[in-house]
Amino acid sequence: MQQISAACLRLLTGLRAEWQGCLPSAEPRVYFANHTSHLDAPAIWASLPSICRSTTRPVAAQDYWTAGPIRRFIASRVMNAILIDRQLPTARNNPVTFIRQAIEDGASVIVFPEGTRSPDGQIQEFKSGLYHLARDLPHVEFIPVYLENLNRILPKGEFIPLPIIARATFGAPLGWIASEGRHDFLNRARQSIVALMQQTLMEPLDNTPLHSAEAFANELA
Amino acid sequence: MNWPDRELGWLIIGTFMALGCASLVGLILRWQCGPTKTIENLNSRIVAWWFMILVFLGAVLSGPIVVVVLFGLLSLLALREFLTLTPTRLGDHRALFWAFFVVLPIQYIILGIHWYAFFSIFIPVYVYLILPIRSAAAGDVQNFLTRTAIIQWGLMICVYCLSHGPALLTMLEIPDYPTRDGKLLCYLVLICEASDVLQYVCGKLFGKHPVAPKVSPSKTWEGLIGGVTLTVGLGTALWWVTPFSPQAAAGMSLTICLAGFGGGLVMSAIKRDRGVKDWGQAIAGHGGILDRLDSFCFAAPFFFHFTRYFYSTI
Fold it and tell me: Is A4's Cβ below 8 Å from some Cβ in B?
């Protein structure tokens, strides 16, 4: 079931995984990625080699993934997701506790530290959960993942995915620096994904300014 | 499966022999020079050629419907590569949905039911006018003209132009010449791809002066002239496959070569602008589907309309 779902998703999204800064590993890890689409978590999950995939659990929003029998089935039976309540992070149902527990039980997890999907594809500020997780688990590898084109396949507010080709780039593990504060750690984590984004070649249209008349004249001259 | 007629049979045997020779040369090169990067790329290209030719011939021998379906799938994969590399904005999601799931199937259904009048104007007229309305209704005006042009251009090249290949089977009626068995399409594919390969080979062997160095350093005058000369020779020698006289076959081959060269140049310009070498990774050694189809997309409409104007009764 897992194999078939992953193969279907890879076919639909033409998904390619690029292991740029690290190699796949069955050791417990934290993959953290930019978030633009509901397909993000399934995409990273499907792009992993099957041996890592079976022990990797996406962290996903409970309200979305328990709405309707199909989503519930995919989340619980196929991806074995860790569902978290986004509304009320109290001491009793703190997501970090659940995630840490899963990692201590030998699973890898996929998290989206922006907390919510970015409306325009830009990478937003990271929530502090990632820092608490890293502080509690200093020996676990934190791998930045840059997801590309998922927001074109299934953007926020749309229902039908387009057959555009997606790409997941896996960067180098983020080391834990004990002296680093929360703000600096989150900044460094965010920058590691921004760096992956900047070296991929497909710039989004928003970042390609139209030629101004002056620049155009200079180019002609 | 239809048993090929004698001329198509010879064409297939000839192609297999040529490809067999290429495989043999590839093996000898590896044995002589060791598995260098260039030779390994050459060999994976040749293996991919076997695969592509077997798929194509399988479709042609299975009849026009299978050819139409095959080209429909190729259009889908090509459009996917095109739109992946050329940026659109979120406001285009619905328009892109229409492009992939409505426009593309309709174009190939029209092709299957032989409705020439609609086939020739559906994308250039109706889709051209209606899709931007959908994008505008979504309310996002930033870079509007660029985005509209990208979607329309992608549809024209990857769907409209590509569909002129199978149109050779379903949209032509030539006296004393069977069009539905796909001989003319085989001729077009053979000449177009031979032109690509021979330009590449001549360019690798003798190439010195690039035609457009900023666009594609591998396209040289030596490769162009050598490749086109050899391909026109081949196309003229194969006149018996077509309804053309030898002189006309030479003219048609020259048209295919020049249109194909232009297509490669234009599609390279888009790739350079986007800062990539290939359209994708779909075919080992070749790059993406569009890297293989770029010249065909430009040559097919010329070949189709020349044939239709001069030879077809409908």
Answer: no
From B116, B140, B171, give the residue that closes a domain. B171
Tally A–B CB contacts below 8 A.
55
B72 in reach of chain A (CB within 8 A): no
B274 in A contact zone (CB under 8 Å): yes
Q: What is the pLDDT of residue B139?
A: 84
Helix (H, G, I), strand (E, B) or coil at A106: coil
The confidence score (pLDDT) of residue A88 equals: 64
* Residue B72 and residue B85 share a domain: yes
The kind and range of the H/E element at A151 are helix A150-153
The pTM assigned to this predicted structure is 0.88
- Tell me which chain A residue has its CA closest to the CA of residue B83: A164
Does the distance separating the beta carbons of A155 and B90 come in below 8 Å?
A: yes
* Nearest Cβ partner for A205 among B76, B89, B280: B89
B206, B264: one domain: yes
Domain that includes residue A174, residue range: 2-220
Structural domain containing residue B255: 177-314
Count of domains observed in chain B: 3
Which segments in chain A show pLDDT lower than 50? Answer: 203-217, 219-221
